[in-house]
Amino acid sequence: MFELLAVPILMTLLALLATIALFKLRARFANWPILYRVALSALIASFAPTLFVAGHGGIPVPTITGLVLTIMQMKWLDDLHLSIMGVGSTNMGVYLPPFLVCFALILLLACSKFRNRVPAMKPPQPW
Q1: How does pLDDT run across 51-97, given as a tens digit for each residue?
Q2: Entry pTM
Q3: Spatial separation of the C-alpha atoms in residues 58 and 9, rounded to whole Å
Q4: Distance between CA 91 and CA 56 in Å, rounded?
Q5: What are the angstrom distances between the C-alpha of 25 and each of 18, 40, 42, 72?
Q6: Which is nearest to 106 in space by CA: 39, 13, 11?
Q7: Smallest Cα–Cα separation from 47: which of 19, 23, 86?
Q8: How confident is the model at residue 118 (pLDDT cuts 50, 70, 90)?
Q9: Which of 49, 70, 72, 120 is least surrounded, with the fewest CB atoms within 10 Å of its CB?
Q10: Alpha-carbon 45 to chain mean position
């Protein structure tokens, strides 16, 4: 059981670290505010709870975990299919509307103001 969940948990932690690193390095994206907003919104929305549907029912998991589990269980790339409701294979799938709603809300509301960092106090002038 642990082997099955090791990779999705690792990918979830990597997405969390990428989100924190992107937030900490926001001053480097001063020339590309739209790229920063889209990347940050996608990373934060990847933690939106969604329904992972397998043969035995549905389990609520973060979107990134459900996508990794779905890709891990595919035998061929041709098994992957995308629909209006989500992405999946023949025996499991992930619903994407919670991800899309969170992405749109974060993109429009939480990241609406992108400001360059300015120092609070001017540096002292040498005499």
Answers
A1: 888 776 788 888 888 888 888 888 887 788 888 888 887 778 888 88
A2: 0.73
A3: 18
A4: 10
A5: 10, 11, 16, 31
A6: 39
A7: 19
A8: low
A9: 120
A10: 5
